[in-house]
Amino acid sequence: MSPSHIHVPADCRTVTEILSRVGDKWSVQVVVQLGGGPKRFNELRRIVGGISQRMLTLTLRGLERDGLVTRTVYPTIPPRVDYQLTGLGCSLLKTVRGLGDWAIANRDEILAARRRFDAESGDDHGAGQKQSNAA
Amino acid sequence: MSPSHIHVPADCRTVTEILSRVGDKWSVQVVVQLGGGPKRFNELRRIVGGISQRMLTLTLRGLERDGLVTRTVYPTIPPRVDYQLTGLGCSLLKTVRGLGDWAIANRDEILAARRRFDAESGDDHGAGQKQSNAA
DNA sequence: CCGTATCCGGAGGGATACTG
DNA sequence: CAGTATCCCTCCGGATACGG
Question: Which of B22, B31, B95, B120 is most worth mutating to test chain A (most A CB atoms within 10 A of its CB)?
Answer without folding.
Answer: B95
